[in-house]
């Protein structure tokens, strides 16, 4: 029977690429985001909703089990990034980033692991950011570091907690990736923020996630896919 993966933030950019990468491995996919459209592929179930809301997480898990009967993997890709000077963040900015980046991880990961425990197997991958390890002058990133840095730490903690229960937990830490979030005129300048001199592609992140999916002896890993940013400059 085909395995089943849940992908959050799945409507565009990295998330959409991850959905297709798993389909290429013959996984059935449960794809969720606020704006996701119905799928014409019977092996892709779409669930629209705000992943920062616990009710959405419950609905995603419930519909995944109803449609496909199992949950093997979860890719926590949903995230938002707001770059502002620290003192100009509003309470709304703070609440929005925490809701998506932290609540969006916590609620669905908790429910997914509970299902994986029943099978004694599973894999969680979260998409974080290389800015956690390597802050960049001119790219204000405190809220990203506060939230995505928390996910890196949680990844290691969960990996150890569930290592003997057959559940692996990893993260991919990207540099700046060509997604709809970044307008094309900014690409050259953003590319120069990486030692390799260019931005990454969504396929780079999807391939890293698939590597971790298939790497049976790897858990607690923060895999940097960042053109060398985290190594130095």
From TrEMBL:
Q: Give the top-rank taxon of the lineage listed in the UniProt record for this protein.
A: Bacteria
| Recorded family membership | Belongs to the short-chain dehydrogenases/reductases (SDR) family.
Give the Pfam families listed for this entry.
adh_short_C2
Enumerate the SUPFAM superfamilies for this protein: NAD(P)-binding Rossmann-fold domains
Keywords in alphabetical order: Oxidoreductase
The terms under GO molecular function for this entry are: oxidoreductase activity
**Upper taxonomic lineage:** Bacteria, Pseudomonadati, Pseudomonadota, Gammaproteobacteria, Pseudomonadales
Asked if DNA damage is a keyword of the record, the answer is: no
Official protein name in the record: 3-oxoacyl-ACP reductase
